[in-house]
């Protein structure tokens, strides 16, 4: 099946694109986009991959669903388009970065700048119907993104996985812990952060320490 995605990812994921479940998923998504307002825009569905080629990936952040409000989702988990107000989870991510690595709170919530440094910002579900959180779950996306995680785990070495919250932590079983580094904490959403499960996790400085130990270039958060 022809899928428009960055070539290095296409090479590693082609076998998924040829499976029956993926063809059924594509038909479902096409129908949803024709009948309803859905996010992100069609050309941004695979943006996380397009901005972060396979062999340049150093860090993986796993989210759950795209934002379902107008003009928010841009295909990268936790990220919003330039000029869009920052959702609560993103606010808490930036607050933690400010205290952890002393970077000023940024004006833009667009995390493409992270992706271009090798941070794969992967939602488990890549599309959503407007104003209906979780509306495209259990249609095949999770099977595909689990295959992405397994492919990274088997084909790469020394990737730092950042697993925030219970949903992301369930992905630990897909990762070879002998080859990769896994950092876990509560989710940056206010519900979790206000219970003391997010702030102070120091994941951003810890990631750079791990990258330095492996001789990789650091991420400018």
UniProtKB/TrEMBL annotation:
Pfam (any one): UDG
EC category: hydrolase
Gene3D superfamilies the UniProt entry points to: Uracil-DNA glycosylase-like domain
Compartment list: Cytoplasm
Domain (Uracil-DNA glycosylase-like) ranges: 50-211
Alphabetically ordered keywords of this record: Cytoplasm, DNA damage, DNA repair, Glycosidase, Hydrolase
SUPFAM superfamilies: Uracil-DNA glycosylase-like
Cell inner membrane keyword on record: no
Reactions the enzyme catalyzes: Hydrolyzes single-stranded DNA or mismatched double-stranded DNA and polynucleotides, releasing free uracil
This protein's record includes keyword DNA repair: yes
EC number: 3.2.2.27
Family matches, as SMART domains: UDG (SM00986), UreE_C (SM00987)
InterPro entries for this protein: UDG_fam1, Ura-DNA_Glyclase_AS, Uracil-DNA_glycosylase-like, Uracil-DNA_glycosylase-like_sf
Active-site residues per Swiss-Prot or TrEMBL entry: 65
UniProt-listed HAMAP family: UDG
Family affiliation: Belongs to the uracil-DNA glycosylase (UDG) superfamily. UNG family.
Protein name listed in UniProt: Uracil-DNA glycosylase
Organism: Flagellimonas algicola
Encoding gene, per UniProt annotation: ung
């Amino acid at each position: 099946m022809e899928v428009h995605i960055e070539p290095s990812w296409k090479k590693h994921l082609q076998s998924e694109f040829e499976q029956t479940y993926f063809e059924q998923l594509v038909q479902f998504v096409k129908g949803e986009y024709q009948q309803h307002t859905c996010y992100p825009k069609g050309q941004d569905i695979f943006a996380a991959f397009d901005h972060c080629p396979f062999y340049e990936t150093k860090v993986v952040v796993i989210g759950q669903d795209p934002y379902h409000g107008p003009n928010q989702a841009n295909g990268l988990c936790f990220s919003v388009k330039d000029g869009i107000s920052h959702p609560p989870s993103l606010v808490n991510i930036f607050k933690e970065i400010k205290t952890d690595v002393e970077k000023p709170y940024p004006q833009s919530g667009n995390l493409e700048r992270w992706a271009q440094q090798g941070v794969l910002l992967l939602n488990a579900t890549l599309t959503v119907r407007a104003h209906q959180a979780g509306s495209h779950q259990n249609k095949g996306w999770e099977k595909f993104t689990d295959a992405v995680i397994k492919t990274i785990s088997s084909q790469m070495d020394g990737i730092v996985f950042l697993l925030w919250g219970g949903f992301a932590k369930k992905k630990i079983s897909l990762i070879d812990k002998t080859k990769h580094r896994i950092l876990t904490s509560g989710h940056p959403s206010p519900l979790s952060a206000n219970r003391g499960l997010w702030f102070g996790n120091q994941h951003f400085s810890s990631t750079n320490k791990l990258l330095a130990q492996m001789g990789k270039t650091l991420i400018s958060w």
